[in-house]
Each structure stands twice: as C-alpha cells, then as structure tokens.
DNA sequence: GAGCACTGC
C-alpha cells in the first residue's frame, strides 16, 4: 500500500502501513463495535463538509440567493423571534452600543432581503408607507452593524446591485469572496478552539489509559469511543488553504470567463455571417472555389476560418489559411480569433508575418500576410499543409494577391481536395468569378450605418480651399459632435491645410467651438500618429487630415463626416524608361466608396465629395489600377521561374502585365546571370530568389561574398530597401538637420557609402533612438533596416556567403570602399549614366536618356563632376532625377554587364 | 537645388 496524502492516513497508523480513507473505514469498524455510527459521523463531518465547500464554490452562479444569504431561517421562527426581540425589547441602535446576537442579525438580514426582493419585483410603490419606513430603518440598522463589526461580513443588496437594480457580477464576485474568506476564518477559529479543548481531554485520558493499554497498537482506540467522539472540523493546512484560495480565485476567473464566452458567443451569433454558416459550409463542400462577398462588418474574416475548423477542415494535420494584405491585420485578427477559440496566439490559432511568426504544431488556423504565403510557395509548391485557403481583401488587388491568384489557379488542378475561398468587396466579385471559371458568388450582407453623400454643384477649381471651407461649414452648421476626416493626397497638402485651419481657428477664437487638428500620413513619426486616437475633448471637434492611409490601414473612431477630395497619389512605373513617378490622379469609385464608408462606422454619417456627381459617374475609374500593372516585375518573374512557371507571357494572370514589362524583366535577369541563354534558371538565379529583395540587390549580395565585403553590402542593401523617409527634414531646424546629414557624406563612394556610414554610426550608438533623433534620422526606418539586415544575414549564412570568422574588411581595410562599390555595380550596372560632354547633365547608358543627379545626393554639384555613375532609382518629379547614385569605373561595368552592353556603348 | 501615396517579402 502506498503512502496516502489523506488526513487519516497520516494520523492512524495500522499494521505498519499507511492507509487511505476507504481502508480506514473498514479498519475502524473492526476496532470497536461502537464505531459504526461514529465512523459515519466522522465521515460526514469531513468529506461532506468538503463536498459542501466544493458545492458552495460551484454554486456561486447557480444558486445565488442561497449563497448570498445563507437562508436557513424558518419563517415562523422568524415571526416569533421578531415579536420577542424587536417589540418586547426595544434595542438601542446607537453605533457604539449596538451589538446583536448572530441569529438576530440573520433575521434582520432576511427581513431586509425580503423587502428588497419585493421592491425588485414590484417597485418601491408596492410598499406601504409604514413598510417603507420599516425597510429603511432595517436597512440602516444592518449597515450600522456591518460598519461596527467588520469580522462579520454581510452581503447587502447594495453590495452587488447597480443603480438600476441589476446584479453587478463583478461587485458580487468581490462581495462573495469577502464573505467566504470571513466564513473560512471563522471556521478556522472554531476549529482551533475545539482542537485545544479536545487535546486537553485527550491528554488527560491518555494519562489514565497509558498504564493499561498497549501504547503502539491501541493508542487511538479510545478516540472512537462515542463519548469522546471528536467533532472533526476540516483541517485546512497551509498549502490547502492556498489551494482553496486559488480555487476561489479560479472560480471567479471561471465565472468571468463564462461571462466572456457567453458574450463572445452572443457577438458571434449576432454577426451577419452567422446565419449563413451552414449554407456557406455546404457551398465550400460542393465547390472547389467560392467567392464570398462580404461588406465590412460582416464578420467573415474572423468567423469563416472558425466555421471551417468546426466543420473539420483542420483535421489530418491540415491547416486553414487566411491571407491579409497588411501585417497589423494578420496579427490583430489572429489575436481576436485565438480569443474566440479560447487558445493563446501561436497555439491553435497562429499568424505568420515577416520578422515574426507565432505558430506551432498545434496550429490549425493560420493568418498571414499574402506576401508570406507567396514565399511559402517556394518551399512547398503544393501547399500540402493546407486544406483550405482564404484570400481576404482580394479586391485590393495587391501585387502579392494577384500572384497568389495565378498560382492557385494552377494548384487547383493538381489538388482536387484543396478548397479556395476568395473574399472580396461587391464591386469586382464578378471578375473573380469569371477568372475562376464561373465560381459561385456567395453574398453576405454587411452591417454599416447609412452614409449620406453630397456632391458639389460645380467642379471645384481648388479642392484644398474647398476642403477648408467645408470643414468650417460642418463645424458651424452641424450640431452633433462627430469628428471630421479629410482625405487629401500628400504630406504637403496636409500640412498646408492644417496650418490654414489652425490660423483661421485662431482668428475666430471665442466665436466657434474648439477644433482639434490632427494630420496623419505614413511618414509622420509614430508618436505624432498616436494623436489621432486620443479621444476628442468635450465641446470640441476633431479634424483628421489624412492621406489614403485612413482608407484601409487605419480606422479612427468617432468619424461622422468625411470630406473626399477625389484624388490619390499613385506611383506610376514606365517599363520602357524604367522611370517611376508619383502622380496625382483621380481616385477610383471603389476608393471613393471606401472613403465614404469611413463615416458610417459609429452611426449614420455624411460624406462631402469635392466633385460633381457627373465626375463620379463618368470620370472616375471603377477600380484602382492593379499593382501588377504598374510596377517593375523583375522580382516576380524570378520568383515564378523558381516555381517552375517558365512561360510567363502566356501565364494566366487576372490582369496580364504588358509583354514589354515581362520581356524587360527577362532581359535583366539574363544580364544578372539568373537565367542562361536558353532562358533557364541558373544556380545564381536560384540563390537570388532566396532573398526577399529586388533581384539587383540580391545580385549585389552574391557578388559581395566573392569580394569579401558581405557585411558592408548587407548594411547598404538593408537600408536601400526603404530610403524614402530616412531623413527627417524639420522645417524649424532645417540647417541643423542639413549639417547632421552632411556629416555622413562620402564624396568618394556617393550615397551608398553614406548609407553605410549612417549604419555604422547607428550600430556604434547601440541602435539608439536618441542618436537617431539627434541626427535627424527616422528611428523607425533604421530599426526596420536592422530587422531586414538580420533576415538577409540569416539567408547569407544559409547559402554559405557569410563566414562567421573575423570581419572580412579588417583584412584589407584600404580597399573596402572600392570592393563595396564593385559589389553594388554587380547588381546595378544596368542603371548607369555617363556625364554629357557639356558636363551639366547625364545620359543613361542603356537608353541614352537625359537625366540629372537628384539634389539630395552627395554627388549633386560635385566638383569636378563624377564621369560615370550607377543609380538606385530613376524618378520623375520636376525633372528626370537619379536618386541614390554612386561613382563607378568603366571596367566594372564591362565586367558585370558583359551580357548587357554592346562593347561600343562602354567606350 | 528638390520634395516623400500606401503596402509587402
């Protein structure tokens, strides 16, 4: 027999072995004939009390009245006692002398409770005047008692009722806890006293019997003699006390959790998508591809994967995937769903985004960015891990979504068991359906408040001033307190408008209500971005002036009015010239509707469009141009080649990119050595595809390994990924910022070595945000570069490009700069330009195009001017500019660009 | 001597 942890086991030793409770029962009966009854009593006083305790805990929710009032008083007793106690013996209720026996307090308490119940049921009016005053006085008396005697804990209705008379569960739980603690303490005290008394008796008896009774065998026998029966009170040792306490706390948590779950269940059921659950699952079972049209607020993003999981799509080690175009969306939706499912993120529900993955073997529902899924295709061509994939927000038509759609169209033939669900807004559902061979469209209504739309009567010549006037019109004419969201195209406009509004407000001070002006755009430092989420003060109106960051990426609460200028800034890529330009273009109808929708999130809203209805109907394009039609596709082509898709010109894209763009991509890949003469992928190409960077940058990284300057090039490449907003240009401290930036300049190596300098100093500072601030650099951007570098480093190491040995450049420090520049040239030879004979402009080598060095470059205005340069990008703003330039030697271009240039070009 | 829509790997 093993050692038992039961109380009796420790106490009663028999036949040299420890007993558990059930054995003990038999033993007891055999010890003494009188034990049978006593034994029962022992049993009752221990186990039953335990049970009682347990049931008390679990009854917290089930039988509240019983629990709260310990209502064991007989009503007749009550009446009799009442006569006796209250009428025959008037009591002194002054606070200092007041002391009542427990029973009387119980009666009082019951009385108050019954009054309260009557009031709860029928209202205060149901009591007669006499009863009312009695009720009041009893209540007061009880209060006084409670105040006087803190050891006695009473639960008054006030302890758990809200002002409206409903039960406040949080309050009640707290009150209950107090009550139980007090009771436990009391029981403990009683037990202690009892034990002391018994112990004294036992001692005396022991003395008496010791002489005659065999000590070892029968030491405890007398204990079971009826006359000396011990009234057992549950012994609560330290650890068990803790356990009990934990248990009570746990129970409280469970109560809260149950509340939470029931509220989750209610919310889930109230979502529009819920009533379509079964029908949706039937359709998914029946068709391989399903287009789900669900407006915002339908709940499809959170519910659909759960429905699929409940229907068994997560079985047999397969996962349910759901892609999102944005990182924050993937993370926040995963958190939400994990909460609903009742697991922590990373367990059953996980997510996967760049630099951050939370998933495990248990993960069955996985949210991810669409770009992440594209990369996943590289390691798992058949996506064997997934049984179903949901492409959410497909109508946004991001580059990655479009690639995925193409890849899935191929995959569906290979895997008939695989299910694909495309979730889109109404506007282009048909297009998705057509693309997937007339896949059925499933409509789920959304839940949004109506938004009233207003157009201008005539076209507005200047939408900026029109927007300002409209803001004041709303502010002064609309009585309700909703906030205003203004959509403009860029930082410049936003700042201008913010200043203008602030000035006008100042002039009108005292005549109008306060206005809180919040500009918002992606490049705004995060701490300033947070301002838009601060609640609007009373009697003020918030005016958020935003780019289209607020169209999809950010949701601001409290917006009731939207002002839409009708334009967007869009990056336009010209495949022929390789030139990018940021242009202000009319936004699409889809965008305009999306913007208007932002007014209807909290209640009915209004949208003021600064253009005519005619323009909306006739001039605005239906949808924005899909990204795939307006970007460089070199990286996409390389990726798809790696996936075995060789005939890209005939690949079934939803919107086919121009042949010109594809051919240009193929040519460059050939020149970079990623493809051979027959257009087949080379080893270099395979390695390049491993990097999540533009192929030109990947090529530079490969070259840097041979040139023993991998670390330096890694830094530069990581920073080139996102250079647009590295420098902070503060208006007030323009000179200081300029000087700070100038301290990093490198005339020899151009902008690339400047970036390297910045990186090295940033690293030296210990990646300090303060250092960034002091040097007018965006911490956010450098921080991201740091993550990128870490990721690229890992890949380099995996490919054996980066040795862990001593710093490569330490061996030959003098030539480091040159080797770095050479490595960059290995990727960028195709983007080179030569100084024109007159010495004031440059001409691109590939297309003989006139271009200029961007004024932000360190090489701008260099004396003497650099003869031969490569550039990172070509941008068309006021003129054709090369941004991020670096001097090169002709022989480098000849070496790396031998498949690109005619020999005579280089002479 | 100019200027930076927004995402994502």
Automatic annotation (TrEMBL):
Enzyme class, spelled out: hydrolase
Region (Disordered): 1-59
Catalytic function, reaction form: ATP + H2O = ADP + phosphate + H(+)
Bias kind Basic and acidic residues: ranges: 46-57
Family matches, as PANTHER family: ATP-DEPENDENT RNA HELICASE (PTHR18934), PRE-MRNA-SPLICING FACTOR ATP-DEPENDENT RNA HELICASE DHX16 (PTHR18934:SF83)
Every Helicase C-terminal domain range: 470-644
A GO molecular-function descriptor: RNA helicase activity
Coiled coil location: 170-202
Organism this protein belongs to: Pichia membranifaciens
This protein's name: RNA helicase
Subcellular location: Nucleus
Record-listed E.C. numbers: 3.6.4.13
InterPro entries for this protein: DEAD-box_helicase_OB_fold, DEAD/DEAH_box_helicase_dom, DNA/RNA_helicase_DEAH_CS, HA2_WH, Helicase-assoc_dom, Helicase_ATP-bd, Helicase_C-like, P-loop_NTPase
């Amino acid at each position: 027999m093993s050692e038992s942890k039961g109380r009796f086991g420790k106490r009663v030793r028999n036949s040299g072995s420890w007993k558990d409770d059930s054995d003990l029962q038999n033993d007891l009966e055999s010890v003494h004939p009188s034990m049978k009854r006593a034994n029962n009593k022992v049993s009752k006083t221990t186990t039953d009390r335990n049970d009682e305790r347990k049931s008390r805990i679990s009854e917290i929710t089930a039988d509240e009245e019983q629990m709260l009032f310990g209502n064991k008083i007989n009503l007749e007793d009550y009446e009799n006692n009442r006569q006796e106690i209250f009428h025959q013996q008037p009591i002194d209720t002054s606070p200092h002398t007041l002391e009542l026996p427990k029973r009387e307090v119980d009666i009082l308490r019951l009385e108050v409770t019954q009054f309260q119940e009557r009031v709860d049921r029928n209202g205060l009016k149901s009591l007669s005047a006499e009863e009312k005053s009695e009720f009041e006085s009893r209540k007061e008396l009880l209060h006084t008692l409670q105040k006087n005697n803190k050891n006695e804990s009473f639960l008054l209705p006030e302890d758990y009722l809200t002002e409206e008379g409903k039960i406040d569960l949080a309050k009640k739980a707290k009150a209950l806890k107090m009550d139980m603690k007090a009771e436990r303490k009391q029981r403990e005290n009683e037990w202690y006293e009892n034990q002391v008394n018994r112990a004294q008796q036992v001692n005396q008896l022991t003395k008496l019997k010791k002489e005659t009774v065999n000590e070892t065998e029968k030491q405890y026998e007398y204990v079971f003699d009826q006359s000396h029966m011990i009234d057992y009170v549950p012994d609560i040792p330290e650890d068990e006390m803790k356990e009990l306490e934990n248990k009570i706390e746990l129970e409280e948590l469970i109560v809260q959790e149950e509340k939470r779950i029931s509220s989750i269940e209610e919310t889930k059921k109230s979502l529009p998508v819920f009533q379509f659950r079964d029908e949706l699952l039937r359709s998914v079972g029946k068709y391989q591809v399903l287009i789900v049209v669900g407006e915002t607020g339908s709940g499809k993003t959170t519910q659909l994967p759960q429905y699929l999981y409940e229907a068994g799509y997560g079985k047999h080690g397969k996962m349910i995937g759901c892609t999102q175009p944005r990182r924050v969306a993937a993370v926040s939706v995963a958190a939400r769903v994990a909460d609903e499912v009742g697991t922590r993120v990373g367990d059953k529900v996980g997510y996967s985004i760049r630099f951050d993955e939370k998933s495990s073997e248990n993960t069955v529902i996985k949210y991810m960015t669409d770009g992440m899924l594209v990369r996943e295709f590289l390691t798992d061509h058949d996506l064997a891990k997934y049984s179903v994939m949901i492409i959410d927000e497909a109508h946004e038509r991001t580059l990655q979504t479009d690639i995925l759609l193409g890849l899935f169209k191929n995959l569906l033939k290979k895997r008939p068991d695989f299910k694909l669900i495309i979730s889109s807004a109404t506007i282009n559902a048909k297009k998705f359906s057509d693309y997937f061979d007339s896949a059925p469209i499933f409509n789920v209504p959304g839940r949004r408040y109506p938004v009233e739309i207003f157009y201008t009567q005539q076209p507005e010549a200047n939408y900026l001033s029109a927007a300002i006037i409209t803001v004041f019109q709303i502010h002064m004419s609309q009585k309700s307190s909703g906030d205003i969201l203004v959509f403009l195209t860029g930082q410049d406009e936003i700042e201008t408008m913010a200043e203008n509004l602030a000035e006008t407000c100042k002039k009108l001070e005292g005549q109008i209500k306060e206005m809180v002006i919040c500009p918002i755009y992606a490049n705004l430092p995060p701490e300033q971005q947070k301002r838009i989420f601060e609640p609007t003060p009373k009697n003020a109106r918030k005016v958020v002036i935003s780019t289209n960051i607020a169209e999809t990426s950010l949701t601001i609460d409290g917006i009731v009015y939207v002002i839409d200028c009708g334009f967007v800034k869009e990056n336009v890529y010209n495949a022929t010239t390789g030139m990018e330009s940021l242009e202000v273009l009319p936004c699409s109808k889809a965008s305009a509707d999306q913007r208007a929708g932002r007014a209807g999130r909290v209640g009915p809203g209004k949208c003021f469009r600064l253009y005519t209805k005619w323009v909306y109907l006739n001039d605005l394009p239906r949808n924005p141009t899909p990204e795939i039609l307006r970007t460089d596709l070199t990286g996409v082509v390389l990726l798809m080649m790696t996936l075995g898709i060789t005939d890209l010109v005939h690949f079934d894209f939803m919107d086919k990119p121009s042949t010109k763009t594809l051919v240009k991509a193929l040519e460059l890949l050939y020149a970079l050595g990623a493809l051979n003469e027959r257009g087949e992928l080379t080893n270099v190409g395979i390695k390049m595809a491993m990097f999540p960077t533009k192929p030109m940058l990947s090529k530079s990284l490969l070259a840097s390994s041979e040139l023993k300057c991998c670390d330096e090039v890694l830094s530069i490449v990581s920073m080139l990924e996102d250079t647009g907003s590295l420098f902070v240009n503060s208006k007030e401290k323009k000179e200081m910022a300029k000087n700070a930036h100038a301290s990093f300049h490198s005339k020899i190596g151009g902008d690339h070595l400047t970036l390297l300098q910045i990186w090295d100093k940033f690293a030296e500072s210990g990646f300090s945000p303060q250092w960034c601030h002091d040097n007018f650099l965006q911490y956010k951007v450098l921080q991201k570069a740091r993550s990128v570098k870490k990721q690229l480093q890992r890949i380099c190491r995996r490919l054996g490009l980066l040795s862990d040995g001593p710093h490569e450049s330490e061996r030959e420090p003098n030539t480091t700069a040159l080797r770095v520049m050479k490595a960059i040239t290995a990727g960028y030879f195709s983007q080179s330009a030569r100084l024109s004979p007159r010495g004031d402009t440059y001409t691109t080598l590939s297309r003989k195009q006139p271009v200029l060095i961007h004024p932000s470059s360190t090489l701008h205005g260099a004396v003497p001017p650099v003869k031969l340069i490569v550039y990172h990008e070509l941008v068309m703003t006021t003129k054709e500019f090369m941004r991020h330039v670096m001097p090169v030697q002709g022989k480098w271009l000849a070496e790396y660009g031998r498949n690109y240039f005619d020999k005579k070009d280089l002479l």
